[in-house]
Specification:
With 202 residues, this protein is mainly alpha-helical. 78% of the residues lie in helices and 2% in strands. The protein contains nine helices and two strands. The chain has a two-stranded antiparallel sheet with strand order 1-2. A hairpin with a 2-residue loop joins strand 1 and strand 2. Helix 1 packs parallel to helix 8, helix 5 runs antiparallel to helix 7 and helix 5 runs antiparallel to helix 9. The longest helix is centred in the N-terminal third of the chain and has 29 residues.
Length: 202
């Protein structure tokens, strides 16, 4: 039960919905024009949809745990790059000046979306749907989904405050969560017939 809840929490704590909810504001805040910000948001959304469809089609071929591990690794690297870029950018009148590092941040953001879309986005829902025994499935799924929405709310409402302090701090936090998600999957999730989750020890 705890493994299912933590999968749901990590899915949100990596900050994926910050990219979707605040995409326009984020890119405008670092110097992109309004038109370019809308274009970036559209590309990001389409990228997420395409990678999610690919993941759904290939999940039985590659397995749940491998996809989660690859996704966590990719997200950790991408978020680490974003945290570094935003954290080291000079700030003028409250606006980070990315300069030549702007394209780097843009590529990293889309790598993050790709690796999430092909792993944690769809795979967590598959695991939650097939892991719990029939007797408790309804209640367990409800609890896991509730944890996910609470985590989503926490990340959503905390981002503006974190952004005001430092975008590097915000993405640094998501980087730490992505790294923890990698360690969590490596330690507590295993491949078995029926894709049961290993019980947490201790």
């Amino acid at each position: 039960m705890w493994v299912g809840i933590l999968l749901s929490v990590f899915q949100q704590f990596v900050g994926i919905n910050v990219i979707f909810y605040y995409s326009n504001v984020l890119w405008e805040a670092v110097g992109f024009s309004e038109a370019d910000s809308f274009l970036i948001t559209a590309i990001t959304s389409v990228t997420n949809i395409v990678t999610t469809l690919i993941a759904i089609a290939s999940i039985d071929k590659f397995g749940r745990k491998p996809l989660l591990l690859v996704g966590s690794t990719g997200m950790t690297i991408a978020l680490g790059v974003m945290a570094f870029v935003f954290g080291t950018a000079p700030v003028v009148n409250g606006v980070p000046q990315l300069g030549a590092m702007g394209p780097v941040a843009l590529v990293a953001a889309n790598v993050f979306v790709v690796t999430f879309g092909m792993s944690w986005g769809p795979v967590v829902w598959v695991l939650l749907g097939e892991t719990f025994p029939n007797k408790i499935r309804g209640a367990a799924l409800s609890l896991a989904a509730a944890a996910q929405w609470v985590a989503n709310w926490l990340i959503t409402v905390s981002f503006p405050s974190l952004k005001d302090v430092s975008l590097g701090l915000a993405y640094g936090f998501y980087f730490v969560c992505a790294l923890l998600s990698l360690l969590f999957v490596w330690r507590f999730v295993r491949e078995t017939k029926g894709m049961e989750l290993e019980e947490m020890k201790g």
